[in-house]
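Supplementary Methods S3. Input chains for the assembly prediction are listed below.
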Amino acid sequence: MTEPKTDGDIIRACQQGNQVAYAELVSRYQDRAFWVAYNMLGDAEEARDAAQEAFVRIYRAIDRFDFNMNFYTWLFRIVTNLSIDRLRKLKKHRAVALNGLEEVLKDPSKQNKPSFNMEEDELKTTVRSVLKKLPEKYKTILVLRDIEGRSCKEISSITGTSHATVRWRLHTARKLFKESWEREENARTG
Amino acid sequence: MSCKRIQKLLPLYVGEDLDASELHEVKDHLKSCLTCYREYQDHLGAKQTLGKLSLEESNHRSDLSRIMDGFTDQVLERISKDPHGPSAPVPRLIYTYLPRALAAAAMLLVAITAGIYFLRGDEKPVVNPGSMVQENHGKMSQPTVSPLSESNRSGMRWVAEHRELERGAGNGMAKDGEEVDKYPDLEPLPQSFPRVQPVNLNRNF
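Predicted structure tokens for the full assembly:
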């Protein structure tokens, strides 16, 4: 039985223009990329688009890959940055599109978007709602640490910030989440 | 460690994100402080609630398969059409970037040339008395010409005249009483220009 190829082996093949090899890399990490984007964006379609864009950009820059770095660190960095960019665009569009909201809701082509709506319980909906309200840099830290389970050292590499900055943001992010969560719970239970 | 300090560390403690000594101190404090322990439980509850989102992956495997159907094929399709991929031949890169590089270089050259022209265009060369050097036998050397603005000429001229007075080199009067132009190489001052009276720098203040 042959050993599975390492990420480094696949990347070297991609650098020679082997797109079939890249397909294997995409298959390995597409679900992870999707979940990171989904936890940041809260929307399945947006998350899929962000994940796809991340893989396209990675392929463009594959010649410059630093073999001292883990591939997933690079992938996560691009996915989180793209997710943050989309969040900012969505905020702007939401502000502009308020007047046309009724028209959007009536449009049948908008009704068939992929989603996880079937059995998502109320608790997770509230958690996502609280997470959504946090500033992007704190949301990123919470997603990577408390949902994805990455270490502070990995998060430092992914976000390009120092360990002290990661620690400080994690402290603030958890504090903000706890306060917002308690407010939501108090409002819900009366 | 005080309760205030402990409570500041609790958000990191719940994820074991403190260093070993801090972890140990917080753990010890929580054994004996009920207030801090309750605060710790609140932080832990919030963190565990957030962590439930990570369980969605296992709960939604079939949904994810549906959403990610065709994902890899679409990525490959996009990169095969992308002219910026790593397998793009070198001549294409030259055709893409060479015209831009040439245009940028031309603009830079024009900007530098224009900058030099405007900087040197308005200035007229005048005598800089500060460049005069006292040679042997007390004779003045030929003044060097350096570009000074018109506004500095009067001041420099006054300095030069004052130096002559200080040295007692004469009042510009010839032996026969006729006034001699001490600076024959300089253009005469305009008549409307007010003559500045020299100040005695030796006076006591």
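Chain B touches chain A at residues 8, 11-12, 14-15, 17, 42-43, 46-47, 49-54, 56-57, 59-60, 63-64, 66-68, 71-72, 74-76, 78-80, 82, 84-87 (CB under 8 Å). The helical segments of chain B are 3-13, 20-32, 34-51, 56-59, 61-67, 71-81, 90-121, 150-167.
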